[in-house]
Amino acid sequence: MTGMATERTAILLMHCADQQGLVAAISEFIARNEGNIVYLDQHVDERRGIFFMRVEWELARFRVAVEAIDKAFDEAIGQRFGMHWTLSFSDEVPRIAIMVSRLPHCLYDLLSRWQSGEWRVEIPVLISNHEDLGDVAEQFGLPYHVLPVTPENKAHQEQRLLELLRAQRVDLIVLARYMQILGPQLIANYPNRIINIHHSFLPAFPGARPYHNAHARGVKIIGATSHYATAELDAGPIIAQDVVHITHRDPVEELIRKGRDLEKLVLARAVWAHIQRKVLCYENRTVIFD
Amino acid sequence: MTGMATERTAILLMHCADQQGLVAAISEFIARNEGNIVYLDQHVDERRGIFFMRVEWELARFRVAVEAIDKAFDEAIGQRFGMHWTLSFSDEVPRIAIMVSRLPHCLYDLLSRWQSGEWRVEIPVLISNHEDLGDVAEQFGLPYHVLPVTPENKAHQEQRLLELLRAQRVDLIVLARYMQILGPQLIANYPNRIINIHHSFLPAFPGARPYHNAHARGVKIIGATSHYATAELDAGPIIAQDVVHITHRDPVEELIRKGRDLEKLVLARAVWAHIQRKVLCYENRTVIFD
Amino acid sequence: MTGMATERTAILLMHCADQQGLVAAISEFIARNEGNIVYLDQHVDERRGIFFMRVEWELARFRVAVEAIDKAFDEAIGQRFGMHWTLSFSDEVPRIAIMVSRLPHCLYDLLSRWQSGEWRVEIPVLISNHEDLGDVAEQFGLPYHVLPVTPENKAHQEQRLLELLRAQRVDLIVLARYMQILGPQLIANYPNRIINIHHSFLPAFPGARPYHNAHARGVKIIGATSHYATAELDAGPIIAQDVVHITHRDPVEELIRKGRDLEKLVLARAVWAHIQRKVLCYENRTVIFD
Amino acid sequence: MTGMATERTAILLMHCADQQGLVAAISEFIARNEGNIVYLDQHVDERRGIFFMRVEWELARFRVAVEAIDKAFDEAIGQRFGMHWTLSFSDEVPRIAIMVSRLPHCLYDLLSRWQSGEWRVEIPVLISNHEDLGDVAEQFGLPYHVLPVTPENKAHQEQRLLELLRAQRVDLIVLARYMQILGPQLIANYPNRIINIHHSFLPAFPGARPYHNAHARGVKIIGATSHYATAELDAGPIIAQDVVHITHRDPVEELIRKGRDLEKLVLARAVWAHIQRKVLCYENRTVIFD
Question: Which Pfam families match (chains A, B, C, D) (predicted)?
Answer without folding.
Answer: Formyl_trans_N
